[in-house]
Amino acid sequence: MPTLNIKPTHKPIKNYYTELKEYEKIGAEHEGAVRIAFQNLLQHYCRQVNLILVCEKTRYTKTNKRIRLDGEVVDAFGLPHGHWEAKDTQDDLPTEAQRKSEAGYPFKNIIIQSPNRALLYQNGHLRLDCDLTDPKNLINLFDTFFGYQEENIVDWYAAVEEFREKVPVLGRGVAKRIQTEMQSNPEFLQAFQSFHQQCQASIDPNLTEAQVEEMLIQHLLTERIFRTVFDNPDFTNRNIIAQEIEKVIHILTRRSPSRSEFLRPLNPFYVAIEKTAAAITDFSQKQDFLNTVYEQFFQGFSVKVADTHGIVYTPQPIVDFMVKSVEHVLKTEFGRSLSDMGVHIIDPFVGTGNFIVRLMQEIQGRRLPQKYREELHCNEVMLLPYYIANLNIEHAYFEKTGDYEPFPHICFVDTFDTVDLMDAPHQTGQFSYFTPENTLRVEEQRETPMFVVIGNPPYNASQDNENDNNRNRPHTAVDSRVRNTFAADSSAQLKNKLYDPYVKAFRWAMDKLGDEGIVAFVANNSFIDGQMFDGMRKHLTEEFDKLYILDLGGNVRKGQPGDSNVFGIQVGVSINIFVKSKNKVGGVSNPDEVEAVSNPDEVGGVSNPDFTFRICYNDETADLSKTRTFAFLEGNQHVGNVTWQKLTPDKRHTWLTADLHNDFDAFIPMGSKVAKSTRGDVKDAIFKTYSLGVITARDAWAYNFNRDALAENMQAMIEFYNSEATRWQRRVERTQNVDTFVSTDSRKIKWTDRLKAELTKGGLVEFAPEHIRNSLYRPFTKQNLYFDRLMNQRTYVFPSIFPTLVVCHIYIAGYNLLSLMR
Question: Phi and psi of 105, rounded to 5°?
Answer without folding.
Answer: -65, 145
